[in-house]
Amino acid sequence: MAVWRRKHLLGLEDLTKEEIELILNTAESFKEISVREVKKVPTLRGKTVVLLFFESSTRTRTSFELAAKRLSADTVSLSSTTSSVTKGESLLDTAKNIEAMNIDFIVIRHQASGAAYLLSKIVSPSVINAGDGFHEHPTQALLDLFTIREKKKKIEGLNVSIIGDISHSRVARSNIYGLKKLGANVCVCGPPTLIPKDIEKLGVKITYDIREAIIEADVLNVLRLQLERQKENLFSSLKEYIRLFGIDKEKLKEVKKEVLIMHPGPVNRGIELSTDVADGQYSVILDQVTNGIAVRMGILYLLSGVKEEI
């Protein structure tokens, strides 16, 4: 039986299959709390979670805050616009000042790859990576894995296609690490300019043909086109991208009837997904949001080292 011994959650690249499964199993135990009349347990009473977000976020920030509060922890939310970063304070000084207030967890989102790792080396609280640059977004991948397992009852042997802006996606990287460790077959699909060089070394198949990516897929994880991160035009036009890689009902005519359509959000409706697909019978996008709370509760619980019954 797997035992959690890590102090931080910085990414899925270094986690074992057993550790990933332990997180998913722990999250499963917490999911039923969200449907109770009283959505709270005393597990982390007296603990403090600081949400340190240097990039915009709706789902991840709110999900972590609800997860902490449902475990009875206190939360403090900081952003770059409301902290002393606007006065020139460095990330490290911000973190050391927060640490001096005797907090227990720092959940950090930052535009620089490696920011969470750097913090974990200089502060004593547990650090949770909520997305760092182009590197990883481990909790998003874990809630994706949780949703797939919940709906499909397994992950091993499934065909999962990740579609869209792979190059700029920390979600794609974390998903690839997690899916491969749990035995899924992973295909990435998008314009050649949005597929990272040497990504096949991670054990994935590459295709530039959307039909090939979807025809045998059990799961389609469709990524947001991150125009704000692109420094140059990486495809001929948005209209051409939509024609070739946007998922609509026409493209889904040949998919398996039980396929899952996923998206990490926010959805650019009419670009990555048509509205009828985003809201359609195959979509589990809102299930992902719901499951994010349980997964993040499970992570906080494991990192806290609490030994009481869930």
Note down, in words, how this protein is organized.
The chain has 310 residues and is of the alpha/beta class. It folds into two domains: 17-136 and 291-304, 3-Layer(aba) Sandwich (Rossmann fold), CATH 3.40.50.1370; 138-288, Rossmann fold (3-Layer(aba) Sandwich). Helix content is 35%, strand content 15%. It has helices spanning 17-31, 59-70, 91-99, 115-122, 138-152, 170-181, 210-215, 238-245, 275-278, 285-304, and strands at residues 48-53, 74-79, 105-110, 126-132, 159-163, 185-189, 205-207, 219-222, 260-262. It has a five-stranded parallel beta sheet. Helix 6 links the parallel strand 5 and strand 6 (185-189). The protein is globular, with a radius of gyration of 19 Å. The mean pLDDT is 93.
Mean pLDDT: 93
Mind describing the biggest β-sheet? 5 strands, parallel
Principal-axes shape call? globular
Instruction: Going across the biggest sheet, name each strand in turn.
Output: 7-6-5-8-9
- The strand count comes to 9
Q: Total number of helical segments? A: 10
Using the CA coordinates, give the radius of gyration: 19 Å
How many angstroms does the end-to-end distance come to? 17 Å
Low-confidence stretches: none
- The first-level CATH class of the largest domain is given as Alpha Beta
Order of helices and strands: HEHEHEHEHEHEEHEHEHH
Question: What is the CATH fold-level name of the largest domain?
Answer: Rossmann fold
Instruction: Please give the domain count.
Output: 2
The CATH homologous superfamily name of the largest domain equals: Aspartate/ornithine carbamoyltransferase
Tell me which CATH architecture of the largest domain applies here: 3-Layer(aba) Sandwich
Question: Helix content range of the residues, please?
Answer: 25-40%
